[in-house]
Amino acid sequence: MSETLTAKDFATDQDVRWCPGCGDYAILKQVQTIMPELNIPREDIVFISGIGCSSRFPYYMNTYGMHSIHGRATSIATGLKSARPELSVWIVTGDGDGLSIGGNHLIHLFRRNPDVNVLLFNNEIYGLTKGQYSPTSHEGQVTKSSPMGAIDHPFNPLALAMGADATFVARTADRDVKHQREMLLRSNQHKGSSFLEIYQNCNVFNDGAFEMFTGKDGKPFHTLYVEHGQPLIFANGEKGIVLDGHTPRVVDLKDGINQSDLWIHDEHDPFKAYMLTRMFDDPTAGFPRPFGVLYSVDRPRYEDLLVGQIEHARSIKGEGDLDSLLAGKNTWEVR
Amino acid sequence: MTPQELSKVTILFSGDSGDGIQLTGSEFSHTAALYGNDLSTFPDFPAEIRAPIGTVAGVSGFRLNFGSIEIHTPGGHVDVLVVMNAAALKKNIEDLRPNGLIIANSSGFDKRNLKLAGYDESATPLDDLRDSHRILELDVTKLTRESLKESSLGTKERDRSKNMFVLGFLYWIYGRSLERTTQFLTEKFAKRPEIAQANIAVLKAGYHYGETTEASLPRYVVKPAPQKPGVYRNISGNQATALGLVAASQKSGLDLFYGSYPITPASDILHELAKHKNFGVKTFQAEDEIAAITAAIGASFGGAMGVTASSGPGIALKGEAIGLAVMLELPLVIVNVQRGGPSTGLPTKTEQADLFQAMYGRNGEAPLPVFAAKSPSDAFDAAFEAAKYAIEYMTPVMLLSDGYIANGSEPWMFPTSGELSAIHPVKANLSEQPYLPYKRNERGVRSWAIPGQKDGEHRIGGLEKEIDTGNVSYDARNHEAMVKIRAERIEKLAESYPPLEMEEGEAEGDVLVIGWGSTYGAVKVAARDLNRDGFAVSHLHLRHLYPLHPELGHVISRFKKVVVPELNNGQLVKILREKYLVDAIPYNKIQGQPLKADEVHEALMNTIRSIVKNEKA
């Protein structure tokens, strides 16, 4: 690139209209900050979103962008990436947009694995429609549409992604700026569909939903940062996780357990990654919640296979000739 | 016996779904086309893939009308009914003309087959028809087995070639060469030559049976039709639609992206396009109808020619996304191969009942051009034109086809690529900064900056746009202005339509019959015949259903009566009445079957009689 861009070059002249104090601001800032570092020309970057608070995101990014319809950002992005494989395509969605109305497209995106980045802002609530429970709201959650508590069992988004054979599965949080930055960069590096779930605080309708994982009191005990090749340790280095056969167990490192006895994170191991996604129950009762890249594997990209078939067809049949196509194989002449 | 000369013949091949009826019919059609007959075909098959064998529900039919004269429809009453079993006879006997010929496979009329067809075991349906019809009974199953005595194939596989016996026999009756079908079978079964040989042997046996049998058999000559000189091929409507789209992609220089979810009767467009990857065609079999259209919208945003197709129920699912495309002002072609509705309706039957859906089936004020193909080969021109308008006017365009056009076929004097008009995408001029995505040219069309173009970065979306900038705007007056701007630019596109031309008749007269879509052939034949008989009947067939042609009002005003035949409960007729305040008369058929020329003829005669009566009074 001939010119050096800054985060400011990725901001638009539009007023940002999220509620004051919304977690989305922190994510927008991080995304704008990492953009110049990607070394991708601004005109080659596209942000696609659906509907919801998070989906206003493209309006604030000075790149190409589309704010589309509810739940369909994933399929629009699949079409765009198929038509233009060279573009850097980012999908911004939320727990309602991506997991409820757009759930079908999300799982099909994962199995096809186009090289796009999905940023799912999970705030466990419907914000734009003013406070109904979402498919990630916990059981019993009291909202405007569930005054007696939600009776729907919630989705476990990362387990869902694993179930759909996503090739990159990661989690971060809005308040965790440094970690978020690292995860955004890793998402971009991944060749294939990257799925980054970002815990995002909705301070109006669901304030403090992730306080346990992001606040200074709960975080050390409930948040587990996984890193490839490193043992699973949390609680300021006092606790770790071992694999007892097929069963993970929290252990106290003071009890003479060596770090080498702990579960060593291997982000390429789908079985272990799936176990990590299952650490999703009430964190006060058992496991901490893993943050970081839980799973990453290389698999052919949809657009590469699509273009590969076109190239193959051309190598066998030659470039299409319209006149012979129109004539077909059986013609006759009337004189 | 000297063969008798006929100007046209309608044959209905019918039998069980597993009897190879469609193949038999299409092979006879190809041979007739190569011989120089004009023709029109229409397959009619059950929705079930394998309905119970031998039952009326499982009967598959293929109708062929061919002649030495111009042919525009697959025929009215059938001259020759081929029945492979009793169920086929039961289902189709009503369609046979008095004194028509029945060619029956006698082994399909045993006790078991009679029972399956719902006849009494003691019934003799063929014998009962001998007074009123001519009947040729052949024991096709037995004759086929005999001709394959030497074959190494098992009984089941031998029996599967019995349709070729019937085909060979018909080739003898109509004096046709076996060459084309022999070649077809050789190619089709190239990997299993023993099957090819068996089929060819049975085909020849059927032909020789005609030659050597002692019975006095009828033979007919149907001479080549006087067609416009040129090179022809046979084509079905879905195939023609697919080729029209590929041609538009080539002429516009835009890669074709086709997003689709399988649905009857549109799936063959996907199958056809998937074969043409060497044209840069990208086909995307989506997880559902919504993904199919939204992926196409994504591709269009990326600068491709986005296309999706479906049938009524699928179009319903695409409704919200079509509205998005209206708002985004991006090129998009949406093909609706209509079938009987509502809901799942009659999946394999034809209907024209989605016109209102095409016109009005979206939230908000969301007008878009609606065009219709009128025949299988015309689907090529219609698809090409839909794509041209979509690209040059930056708008989604709805193209209506239907099950009859999709599966029907006819000879097509195909164009050369040089004869097709160029298509010019509306490129953005990015030397003018800032780029305003919703700034319009003199035709009201915005320009198309695509990702990858430097200094063209912009954001679009489904929220209301501010004039010129395209920024989100909730301003009251801006919204009203934008609704009108969007509507006017679609209205304006009608200024570039070619002049209206009558299909039949004069520019003024007693009765104007206005048709659209697949009723074309039937209406044309009826109007032509009435004209010949001295009635002042004219036929106009509309390609452009929205916006309507600017001259249409004047044309209508030059006639005493307007009749609108449709395969629905009256949709275009309501649009015309509303727009032109004309007392147009509907003629409706809603049976899942194409319109017949004699039905239109009768409806028009009624109108003519009413005019005469009024004038006397």
TrEMBL record, chain A:
Gene3D superfamilies: 3.40.50.970. Residues 51-198 form the Thiamine pyrophosphate enzyme TPP-binding domain. Keywords: Oxidoreductase. The keyword Transport does not apply. One of its GO terms (biological process) is cellular respiration. GO terms for molecular function: oxidoreductase activity, acting on the aldehyde or oxo group of donors, iron-sulfur protein as acceptor; thiamine pyrophosphate binding. SUPFAM superfamilies: Thiamin diphosphate-binding fold (THDP-binding). This is 2-oxoacid:ferredoxin oxidoreductase subunit beta. It comes from Phaeocystidibacter marisrubri.
TrEMBL record, chain B:
Residues 257-449 form the Pyruvate flavodoxin/ferredoxin oxidoreductase pyrimidine binding domain. It comes from the Bacteria. Residues 18-207 form the Pyruvate/ketoisovalerate oxidoreductase catalytic domain. GO terms for biological process: response to oxidative stress. GO terms for molecular function: oxidoreductase activity, acting on the aldehyde or oxo group of donors. The keyword Translocase does not apply. This is 2-oxoacid:acceptor oxidoreductase subunit alpha.
